[in-house]
Amino acid sequence: MIEVSLSINGQKVTRAVQPRTHLGDFVRDDIGLTGTNLSCEHGVCGSCTVLVDGKPVRSCITYAGACDGKEIVTIEGYDQDPIMVRLRKAFNIHHALQCGFCTPGMLATSRDIVLRLPNADEDRIRIELAGNICRCTGYQGIVRAVHSVLTDLQQNPDEQVDALRAAFATNSVAEEQPRPFTTFEAQVAMPEEAASTKKAGDKASASPKGNVIESDFELSYPIERVWEFMSDLKAVAACLPGAELDEQVGDEVKGRVAIKFGPMSASFNGQATLQRDDVNHAAVLKGTGVDSLSNSRARGDVEYVLYELDPEKTRVEVSLDYGLQGPLAQFSRSGLVQDFVKRLIREFSKNVEASLGNKPLSGTGKAKQLNPVAMMFSILWEKFLALFKSKK
């Protein structure tokens, strides 16, 4: 058991909980605030959304222990919040609720939209609400309700709402992490002393921060040649489907990564920093990015270690620790998406092998974009075959 002390709706609470206890279960079972609804419990539907330090968070995939010292606001805690007062009225007027199960999470996200995006139009509102699922309303009334609140505030400014927006902007600038939905700065991958003491085969000392995917591949080339190639960011980016570099200064790069998988289509613009351990043939590439369409944020730490299998063969072990925030966060835990990433790594390894052999990747010299439809059917077919074999 661990002790957790935090503020819930303005009240300080301290409880002993198991480390695996999620925030949604904590507020419902330990505190008795049942307005927060749990449904998918995979961070997909948005019904469990609450505010953590003023920002919407999926409480079903957030550990209570990770919220120690933070301020939590659930649907029971908005009281006379000036934005929520307007949203509650607008949801009634525009018939934006029916069974009400999704409403607590929908209101939390809607409040964030009104607070953060005062000039959002209906298209932007739909994008922002994409991470909240409603099975009743058809979303039309919800979108109209949020838009009506924004329009009214534009025509009739409210001092209380303006004060909330100003405080939000100030707190966002002061945060160590980049402000949501703006440009960002890459963080240093590893301290120098950590890089110098890291041994080949060691995993990153820091605990995973998000979803982790591990894979490996073999290349029919000496380890030193592979390491030289893997240390060339331009060469590596050329082998990664959807990646483009705009600028490189030393081990820092700026560019974009385009992704399309089923309903998810995004182009993350950002920068990354590579920290290398030449002695042990290990490196970490750490970066963050923002999708210009959905304003979702992506963070990824790519760690790779090279092993010499024989003088002419090298194994590359890759560990990807990634996270998504914003409307696209609902896709980050999907099993199909994780399979997709593994396929992406497989295609990357083929392109690296071709580049090391001085073979052209395509007519443009860049990795071809993956066909998401064909890849998705291929993944599903493999799963079907595996299921069929397991029942033999």
Could you walk me through the main structural features you see in this protein, from its secondary elements to its overall organization?
The protein has 392 residues and is α+β, with helices and mostly antiparallel strands. The chain folds into three domains: 2-77, Beta-grasp domain (Ubiquitin-like (UB roll), Roll); 82-174, DNA polymerase, domain 1 (Orthogonal Bundle); 192-390, START domain (Alpha-D-Glucose-1,6-Bisphosphate, Chain A, domain 4). Helices cover 34% and strands 26% of the residues. It has eleven helices and twelve strands. It has helices at residues 23-30, 82-93, 103-116, 122-128, 140-155, 159-174, 192-197, 223-230, 233-239, 335-356, 372-390; strands at residues 2-8, 11-17, 49-52, 55-58, 71-73, 211-219, 243-249, 252-261, 264-277, 282-291, 297-310, 313-325. The strands form two sheets. Strands 6-12-11-10-9-8-7 form a seven-stranded antiparallel β-sheet. A five-stranded mixed β-sheet has the order 2-1-5-3-4, with helices on both faces. A hairpin with a 2-residue loop joins strand 7 (243-249) and strand 8. Helix 2 (82-93) crosses helix 3 (103-116), helix 3 packs parallel to helix 5 and helix 10 (335-356) crosses helix 11 (372-390). 34% of the residues are buried.
Query: What is the helix content?
Result: 25-40%
Low-confidence stretches: 176-207, 370-377
Tally of strands: 12
Radius of gyration: 23 Å
The CATH C-level class name of the largest domain:
Alpha Beta
What name does CATH use for the topology of the largest domain? Answer: Alpha-D-Glucose-1,6-Bisphosphate, Chain A, domain 4
What structural category arises from helix and sheet content? Answer: alpha+beta
Strand content: 25-35%
Task: Choose one word for the global shape.
Answer: elongated
Give, in order, the helices and strands.
Answer: EEHEEEHHHHHHEHHEEEEEEHH
How far apart, in Å, are the first and last alpha carbons? 43 Å
Spatial strand order of the main sheet: 6-12-11-10-9-8-7
